[in-house]
Amino acid sequence: MSVEQHRTGIAARPPRGNLYALAANVLAAIGTIWIFLLMFLIVADVLGRNFFNMPITGVAEIAAHSVVAIVFLQVSSAVLADRLTTADFLTRIIRARAPALMRAIDTIFLLVGALVFAAITYASWPQLRTSWLRAEYFGVQGVFTIPTLPFRAIIVIGSVAAIVAYLILAWRTATGARVHASEE
């Protein structure tokens, strides 16, 4: 694999025609658009606050919840594209000397990732249900409120999407159908 392919991640992208990869990339695109909208909202708040003494109410609350939502929207695409940050100084040595061992380690890592997101889903589901049944809001009543349901739903949806992504890669890695980017 060339340095350019490693830097851009081209060799690690999911295969074309993969419907799940398309769905994960759509979620990631929504997260990217959300980042730009949030950026414009923050800039408008700063300009309004500094030049017109008129801040936009609720920007801090929206930004705080948006960051979490954006992460969960984008995580499944990052997993599928093999773009998670790793310290590979040791894994490169293991992969060069014992590729089968490294494939087993990669598979275990991917299964643990699925378990972590399963735990997040398990912990988040009751909160999602509660926010649905009680019509929960966050913010200051009478000043600014926004429903918690969309944010909690994104956490659950993003977690389930990450579980599926991890399991797809674990299967491909365990069966040898997935070649790690550093092996190409």
Structure write-up:
The chain has 184 residues and is mainly α. It has one domain (3-183). Helices cover 72% and strands 4% of the residues. The protein has helices at 3-8, 19-51, 59-80, 89-97, 99-134, 149-175; strands at residues 137-140, 144-147. It has a two-stranded antiparallel sheet with strand order 1-2. A hairpin with a 3-residue loop joins strand 1 (137-140) and strand 2.
Q: What overall geometry do the principal axes of the alpha carbons give?
A: elongated
Q: What string gives the helices and strands in order?
A: HHHHHEEH
Regions with little confidence, pLDDT below 50 for 5+ residues: 1-11
Question: Largest sheet at a glance?
Answer: 2 strands, antiparallel
* Number of separate helices: 6
Strand order of the largest sheet: 1-2
β-strand percent reads under 5%
Mean pLDDT across all amino acids: 88
Rg: 20 Å
How many domain modules? 1
Count of DSSP E strands? 2
Distance, first to last CA: 5 Å
**Which structural class matches the secondary elements?**
mainly alpha
Helical content band = over 70%
